[in-house]
């Protein structure tokens, strides 16, 4: 199989159910999800085999991030549909529910925060903050797409929750590395403490 097809040389690309310009809102949406997936892969690559393997300090994160990569492909696949009824959708509400459970699990490890924090800290936490910001951009691209074209609404919900997960995972990665959060100095108290 050849990698190059030459079919996109005219500035168009194939989606499931047709062809569109390469800067179409649909391509922007699933392309940004693809970009996010690459950053998730980069975050995983920062873990040593010992840290990522069963019993390692970040084994749960490595496992969860790999599953997220699979599901981001599902998101891209659903976004690449010219019409959502061309085939069964892959991203469902249960995926969002699981992300919420993961957020709660990771959040339980970290100290309470009341103010905005600066992205950074350990290399893994910094990479997860990059994932968070790219995820927010992907979500914005999906919102733009949904204004004019049909989408799987669960993809939008998934990306919204996923950015929260990346934030929580970044804080957990710093906590496990013994790195404290750095609060934004001029932040008001915007977060409520846990019940």
From TrEMBL:
Class of enzymatic activity (EC top level): transferase
Domain Cobalamin adenosyltransferase-like residue range list: 3-173
Domain of life of the source: Bacteria
Keywords attached to this entry: ATP-binding, Cobalamin biosynthesis, Nucleotide-binding, Transferase
Pathway: Cofactor biosynthesis; adenosylcobalamin biosynthesis; adenosylcobalamin from cob(II)yrinate a,c-diamide: step 2/7
InterPro entries assigned to the protein according to its UniProt record, in alphabetical order: CblAdoTrfase-like, CblAdoTrfase-like_sf, PduO-typ
Family of this protein: Belongs to the Cob(I)alamin adenosyltransferase family.
PANTHER family assigned to the protein according to its UniProt record, in alphabetical order: CORRINOID ADENOSYLTRANSFERASE (PTHR12213), CORRINOID ADENOSYLTRANSFERASE MMAB (PTHR12213:SF0)
Protein name: Corrinoid adenosyltransferase
């Amino acid at each position: 199989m050849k990698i190059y097809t030459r079919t996109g040389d005219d500035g168009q690309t194939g989606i499931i159910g047709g062809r569109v310009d390469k800067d179409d809102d649909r391509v922007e949406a699933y392309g940004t999800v693809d970009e996010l997936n690459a950053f998730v892969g980069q975050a995983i690559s920062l873990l040593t085999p010992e840290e990522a393997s069963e019993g390692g300090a970040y084994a749960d994160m490595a496992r969860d991030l790999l599953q997220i990569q699979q599901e981001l492909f599902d998101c891209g696949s659903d976004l690449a549909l010219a019409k959502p009824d061309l085939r069964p959708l892959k991203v469902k509400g249960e995926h969002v529910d699981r992300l919420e459970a993961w957020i709660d699990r990771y959040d339980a490890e970290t100290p309470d925060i009341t103010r905005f924090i600066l992205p950074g800290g350990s290399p893994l936490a910094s990479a997860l903050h990059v994932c968070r910001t790219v995820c927010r951009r992907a979500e914005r691209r999906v919102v733009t797409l949904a204004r004019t074209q049909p989408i799987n609404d669960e993809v939008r919900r998934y990306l919204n929750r996923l950015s929260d997960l990346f934030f929580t995972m970044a804080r957990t990665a710093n906590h496990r590395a013994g790195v404290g959060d750095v609060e934004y100095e001029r932040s008001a108290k915007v977060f409520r403490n846990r019940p």
